Amino acid sequence: MKKLVFFTLFLSSMYSYSQKKTLQAQQILQSISIDGKLEEPEWEHAAIASDFVMFEPDNGKPIPEGRKTEVKVLYNNDALYIGAVMYDDEPNKVLKEISQRDNFGTADIFGVFINGFNDGQQNFEFFVSAADVQGDCIMTDSNGEDYSWDAIWISKAVLTDKGWTVEMKIPYAALRFSEGNKQTWGINFFREIKRERKKYTWSLIDTKIGTFTQQNGNLEGIENIKPPTRLFLMPYASYYLNAADSQKTYGTMKGGMDIKYGINDAFTLDAILIPDFGQAKYDDQILNLGPFEQQFNENRAFFTEGTDLFNKGGMFYSRRIGGKPSVEPDLKENEEIIEDPQSVNLINALKVSGRTKKGLGVGILNAVTEKTFATIKDTITGETRKEIVEPLMNYNVLVLDQRFRKNSSVTFINTNVTRNGHFRDSNVSGLAWDLNTKANTYNLSGNVKYSTINDTEDTKGLYASIGFAETSGKYRYSVGTDLVTKDFDPNDLGINFYTNYYNFYGNANYRILNPTKLFNSFKLNYNMYAEFNKESGKVQESDVNVNLNLTTVKNNYYGAGITIYTEGNDYYEPRADNRYVIVPGRIEATGSISTNYNHKFALDLNPSIALFDESERMNYGFDIGPRYRFSDKLLLTYTFSFFRKNNNKGYIDSFDNDDNENTPEDIVFANRNVITYSNILGGKYALNSAMTLNLSVRQYWSYAENKDILQLETDGTLTPYTEYTKNKNSSFYSWNTDLSYSWWFAPGSQLSVLYRNNASNFERVIDKEFKTSVTNLLNNDALKHIFSVSVKYFIDYNAVKNKIRNRA
Question: Does the predicted TM-score (pTM) go above 0.85?
Fold first, then answer.
């Protein structure tokens, strides 16, 4: 009898989970005061969404009665209103750290996921923390959550003796939906109880399926609304005061405007007129000894907001736009560069992006940068001249992304760079696919890219990849292969380092889907990789890796991995065609510990070591990062990093062999020790949920001391080269400090005040005194100072129109 009852209850629960939940929205005739109290009578008559179930870690488990959650939805002609009550039988334990927007810190969270087309393709997600901090993002299964997207909406969270409550007003202008008298939207509600690290949703998100956006419930009852005109103006004004010992203190004033316009219900135009990126985060520069440029994060809002479409196929690297000039000046005898621009000014940029109801996503981006000159001086006559290092340039990106069956897509991407005059132009096209079975159990993905470069010598190149994976259940696997020809070059508007190879790779892994007595999560991975030079067939890299990642029931994270590399042939470090250096085999071990951030004190630790099949050659280092939350307002973090390479072999120079034209050029390597230190201090003090003070300090020092000079032979070996006497030691040290104040004084409107100082230096003479590498930069001779104030104001066309109408 007990078995029969259990079986009946099991079938009943499975049936209830398999059905889409439905919630009725209640229409109102006036606006609701957003104060977090839910005291208006309209809330009393609205339908309730309840019976939340756990998303992570124990997927499908009902929320406890003492933590029940109730959500109601109202609407009028202007906006959607969400009211939520988060009960907690221990209300004094609700975590409520105040943080910046989109960074919730250690706080409980409530969220709503909305899909106006109800097509299972894309969610607009809106979050409020128990500390009354907002966050929002766009969510797709292929790209995850993109928090660079920001909407304008209003919310208020209030702590109570029974838990906490939230009210949200989400204007229709922040959403996407089609015209129609009756609307059925996809919707889900989310709650995270931070102290337990448990996440719940109203409509079950089954983690075995491998998709997120297709498991929404339905929101019905919205009738006779029309998508509003989506026109937003964001004028700004900035003032910069610059000071340095080598220049006279001067101030500059900047002004401009960002525009967002909804072309129709699907597509949005974003444009920047007279851009200003002066307050974007500084770049973490390093001593780069390798053959490839350093890749930087994008910190400019225009190029991070809503760019999921442009990232398809991995062909767009936005830092190319306004980056370092691409042309080297042609110096004559007795000439030197006295002004060498490190960036190119952006004149303007615009993008059009969106997705139709039938799943066609369209992305168009255009940017124009100005002609840029270097100043060159004749050291004998003293005369100066200017030479173009970057002509007037036009950048274009086009993306067409067709989704179908709610979980698959085929994408066409094209990037194009045109330089004015007789300079290099480029065009790269790609086709990418991401195909999933209806049940989301298997995936077939890949892409084909083709580049054309028009320069002194025209070149064409190909990149092709394909991969297959099982994507559901406890046991999963994937296999794939890539092929890249020698002349594939997307680097005018993309970034790609490795060419002229083919590879094979595979992965097998095991994970738990529900917690055990010891673990909240547990994943064991096995990876293999083999890469071959396309022309010679030599092994470039071959390795196998095993790694383990787990979270304990106390929410401490641990990770460990070991990788075994066989001997390989590096075709990139010599920086010459058809030359390579033999890299010995090695064993590399890594570890990772991250204690529960819910505690006031937490610690991150990441050690690593690599032992080479070569005498006295090894790498080792670690990162250690303590953090302490003094209160819900004050948080300090610190990270110290140390890494050392003993007997590292690397390129330092090359020159043509004058004795014989048929003899390959001489390539010079060094046997060297490379040591790197960095210290990073971060701090946040929140005056309230709209005002924060932030501190970011980074000190970096890395040096490479050459012990022996070596010559690269044509067979990839290295032999002593005593004739070479140049000093090619390297020492680079830098300092950056940002102290900023941010005040969101109205929805979408911000006042920012920033003090920044920075300095850096590169030397061939190495002073190993750590103190010296810091103090040499902390003086007026070295430091550059910037003080800036920026005000951005958000203007909603609809709000202005309504005010004018009411006054009339």
Answer: yes
